[in-house]
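User: Hey, my collaborator sent me this sequence without any context and asked if I could get a structure. I don't really work with proteins. Can you help?
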Amino acid sequence: MTATVTSAPPRRGQSVFWRRFRRSTPGKVGAVIVSLFVLLALLAPLLRPYDPTTDRNYRLTLKPPSITALWNETAKETYTDPVSGKVDLWAAPFGTDNLGRDIYSRVLHGTRISLKVGVVSTVLALVIGTLLGVMAGFFGGWFDSVMGYLTDVLLAFPSILLAIGFATIFSSDNPPFLIQALDRLFALNSPQLVTAMLAVSLVQIPVYMRLARSVVLSIREREFVQAAGALGASQWRTVFRHVLPNSLSPLIVQGALSIATATIEVAALGFLGIGAQPPLPEWGTMISDSRQYYVDAPLDHDFSRPRHLPDGAGLQPARRRPARRARPTQHAVKRSRAFDKKDATSFWRAERVQNTEQGGEWSDAGCRSAHHVIRRTALRV
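Assistant: No problem. I've predicted the 3D structure and written it out in structure-token form, which is a compact way to encode the shape of the chain:
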């Protein structure tokens, strides 16, 4: 009777990414911050149900944050429920705008729009730019030359100027069918926002084209690519099975970095009035709507100090010790010595002649006093 011993299957080792991620403290902190923003965007309808078309309370226009009710009597009266008599500290944590809308709810729901637009525009640019760059780098020829000239022209202009130019091409009254379809697909409810998203995506395409082309130029000369061609694989099969999968690492890194840039550019277009339009809670549009109230309706100064402190206690700058008088530098000392040698002798002689002509006398004490005055003047200069 023979016993068969079955060996356990070998454990699959962790990838290089996870090993480096576990040892990277900045990577963990960044992952926590990104996860927090994503969770806030996903849970915004549950945390703060919001309808931008009906959310208005003209009784609470331009009010300070509700947390100021802890030390501000005016804010306490504003956020006190007339029925129960309780103060709602979470009624408007960021205050209200000129229409009485809760700024915190608008910022929270604006996170959904900004992240959605940033991710979608980056994915579109990544897909289109990668395909064009891979084809240009692998096949070469006239297609590579045309794509190279096109990317040179697009990269010669600032991205925000190109985005403004592309966003103003289409009319907001009668948008094309493609923009209407994308608006319904991503549930943005704003054709102008879709236009801004496509404009930002078109601006980012040359970056991915250049990056994909440079990576493919080095990969197509590798042994496994040449072996696939020798075994009878077609060019398209070689591109999509061997070249493209091995070119994705730098493209994914660039895509992760471009999400933030796309979000900022879409917000900039909204601030200029080209992107999302009111009452949609988009970050750039919100900043544009509230910029006129930075001076007219700033936050109450009581927000910067607790209630038990006297007036102005939170606004007084800290006292600093008087600065010590600077010692004369080496250059000033040398200048003083040169002044002593040249000008002091001339000064003494002139004074002595003047006193002699007027019948006076010249003493050594007067000479030393004049020398002291001249030396102090030179040190001050």
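In plain terms: The radius of gyration is 36 Å. You can pass these tokens on to your collaborator as they are.
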